[in-house]
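The protein record reproduced below.
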Amino acid sequence: MPSRISPWVAAALLPICAAAAPPAPPAPEAQRTLSNAAERVYDLAKPRILQIRTLLQAAGRQSTLGSGFLVSADGLAITNYHVVSQYALDPKTYRLEYLAPDGAKGTLQLLAFDVAHDLAVVKIEHTGLPFFEFDPRAIDNRLPKGERIYAMGNPLDLGFTIVEGTYNGLVDKSYDERIHFSGAINPGMSGGPVAGNDGRIVGVNVAKRLDGEQVGFLVPARFAATLIERARKGPPLVLDKAREEVGRQLDGWQSAFYDALKGEGFRTAPFGPYRGLESAAPWMTCWATTNADLLPKPRTAVNTTRCTSATGIFVSDRILTGRVDLSYSYYKAIDLNAFQFATELSSHPWTFDSRGGKRLTEQECRDDFVAAGPGAGPPLRATWCMRAYREFEGLYNVTLLALTQDHDREALLAQLNMQGVSYANAVTFGRRFLEAIQWAR
């Protein structure tokens, strides 16, 4: 990964009820076998791996560090998009450079990128180079779970290393295809190769969980192979148009994502005397919290459910997009009068996406009062808030807040957050979110 860690690699830690007994240490012979395999793979890989640096043109100093690996004799190499994103978005300010394990260095040309799968193809100006081949089993998703695989890169700029780990197949609860790798991936290893015992590529380092131990993620090899073919066939990337290409890919991703969300279907779920919308997609996960166990005893009971897609598209160091969150908080006064209860509701910590800095416009909000038809549902006060992406026309971060207006001492507060969404998808999904707030029968 680059030298800085983006927040999108973090996720909620699952509660653990009991610790498993530690496994017995491997026998000395097994240790030697694993060590010999890693040594053999690294010896094969060493002339094929690269450190990839983004340098600030004016200072000639590195801004980010990542890794990459050669995939052709004419100098084509794979890395992560997020390793080269600064250069892709601002080629007049930054430049790319590589460093090989033997100390050789030189400039890099950016040929293609795939923002959704966090991949890029770069080229060094040499020919006749040794290079990696892709494992056909990985291309066809036939690699068995539990197989030993080896991640390589230059972690924390400490030098080129190899890490033994385990292939665990694709992550189950994920819209974006990622391989679960049981091994240590650290900043600086992003874009580095992950190979099997025969040295053929099975994946590309991309991220890790910040709240776990040795829980890493890889981009499947088939996406890298596809991008290589695209880079070869052209048309060549025009750097001055790279920002437009990023926007085009983001728009395509969000369109497919909301189509998939719709295709998976929706269901309603109870929240006190109300009901609300939940997605049936397996990659939307929900968690519930309550204030019932707080001391001193709260004067308002609050039960909250939060659902998230846990998706994340890295665009730049300031923009992480592509996520959907829904939350429902059912409030019921215990010993508050109507005025006190209204004050309590007004202090609810609604969350707005404050990231993006100058790359997003200032937030604009609008209030609506939604009067449902007879028996259709409670009247609502709805607030729409929107921030536009300055560099990617037609994409927005949207927050929709809804508060029921039918009782003095109980209420449902609902919130929908959508990142990197088109106006049409935001309105369509937002309306469905509001229409689903009903009385429970």
About this structure: The radius of gyration is 25 Å. The chain has a mean pLDDT of 89. DSSP finds seven helices and 25 strands in the chain. Residues 66 and 83 are 6 Å apart (CA to CA).
